[in-house]
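Workshop exercise sheet. Pairs work together: one partner reads the sequence aloud, the other fills in the structure field after running the prediction. Swap roles for the next sheet.
Pair: D.N. / O.F.
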Amino acid sequence: MHNLVLQVPAPARLDPAVVARIAEQVRPRSQQALGDAAGRGGPSALRLCDVAADEHTVRALMPALAARHGLDWALLPAGLRLRDFRLLVLDMDSTLVNMETIDELGSATGMKARIAEITEAAMRGEIADYAESLRRRLQLLAGTPESVLEDVWRRMELNPGARELIAAAKAAGLQVLLATGGFTWFARRLQLELGLHEVRANELDIVDGRLTGRTLGPIVDGAGKRDALLDACRRLGCEPSRAIAIGDGANDLPMLDAAGLGVAYRGKPAVQQAADMALNHCALDALLLALQDE
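Structure field:
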């Protein structure tokens, strides 16, 4: 059996009429309010338990309804909880943090618009070879002073709910891996700040205080992110089905597919379609409510 979880960003409340319409279509055995349900007008999050509708029916029904009414949803196996997992894997740019760092590096050299255009095409999956798209963008950064990295770091912010999600995952016994097509220069600093267990990222080549426009070592692309997830699972002695992966772009699809639970955070359309859960409105820690004990 499956549960259908519905959420809107607190302090907003789910519209009872919309919930009733969805319940009529999916026919749950019962309903359960999640989190703080004491607010006037009903809960911000609701679990429709043991829905009778099949997965195809739910997935055909929900995307348009969710977009129209500003809610997030997830169809999850009944009884699935955070403590059932061993690993949380997060993308960095536009998932863990509020920017595409390579685009911001282009600001200092006047290349941001050109770099961002390539980034957006790569994230939508229009450039099939992520490694080549990264090389093209890095070439535009050749000669950039290393000090620009510090400027970007000072402007970087975690996305809402990121700190809470990571803390809860660690408290539940999960290892946390940052797997990114971005750069170790930023990822290592985030690792120290958040207490992440591992980082897999690209190493910038810096000579005499300036970016050369190249990386050192193999480029971490979609396959590299998937490999990072699988390597971590092997070290932990668990199946990939006990991993959660969260990302937003096309290069996250391989790791979302490998994980037991794939989550799209403000994801591109192809990523939302492939994910088990899409967070378009709620913060990252909305995942915690979806995996809350019954």
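Discussion prompt: The first strand starts at residue 2 and ends at 7. What would you look at next?
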